[in-house]
Amino acid sequence: MLLPKKLKHRKVFKGTYAGPATRGFTVSFGTYGLKAMDRAWLSSRQLEAGRRAMTRYIKRGGKIWIRVFPHKPVTSKPAEVGMGGGKGALDHFVAVVKPGTILYEMSGVDEATAAEAMRLAANKLPVKTKFIKADSK
User: Fold this and answer.
1) pTM
2) Cβ of 28: how many Cβ atoms within 10 Å?
3) 137 pLDDT above the threshold of 60
4) Could you tell me if 71 and 34 are in contact, meaning their C-beta atoms sit under 8 angstroms apart?
5) CA–CA separation, 96 vs 68, rounded Å?
6) Sign of dihedral through CA atoms 9, 39, 92, 53?
7) How confident is the model at residue 10, as a pLDDT?
8) What percentage of residues in the chain have a pLDDT greater than 70?
9) Are 49 and 22 in contact (CB under 8 A)?
10) 20, 25, 27, 43: which has the fewest Cβ within 10 Å?
11) Average pLDDT, the chain
């Protein structure tokens, strides 16, 4: 799974993520891409599940890029713990995704294969997505 090698701060605020994506919204590396149409926190497990679904479908042909990385640490407290007592322990990492962000890119396969592989990956994610080509928007 994806996780940062080093953190400046172990626990961070939740933050806000209003508005559309201001970076990472064009297909830069591959021929086809999977664009997020909603906003969400994508966990490293979800990103890895999508990557594995695509890799298995294309039978290790072509090349896949993951365009988002889970930098943000998320904490949680154990079940049935009362209020107070501070912030919980580090639980997992998430990637903050805004509408328009490219999640995955692919090249080296035909369009039908890429579309089906991206559809399988999209089923693993909690956001609405759209299959796009490098020349289109």
Assistant:
1) 0.92
2) 12
3) no
4) no
5) 8
6) negative
7) 94
8) 99
9) no
10) 20
11) 95
Torsion-angle region of residue 110: left (phi > 0), alpha (psi -120 to 50) or beta?
beta
Outline where DSSP puts E strands in 11-136.
Answer: 32-36, 40-43, 63-66, 72-76, 89-97, 102-107, 129-133
| Structure letter (DSSP) for residue 52 | H
The angle, 0 to 180 degrees and rounded to 10, between the axes of the packed helices 111-122 and 44-57 is 150
Residue labelled with tokens 């080509």: 133
CATH superfamily of 32-76+90-133: Ribosomal protein L16/L10 (3.90.1170.10)
- Helix, strand, or coil here: 136? coil
Predicted confidence (pLDDT) at residue 68 exceeds the cutoff of 70: yes
pLDDT tens per residue, range 39-51? 999 999 999 999 9
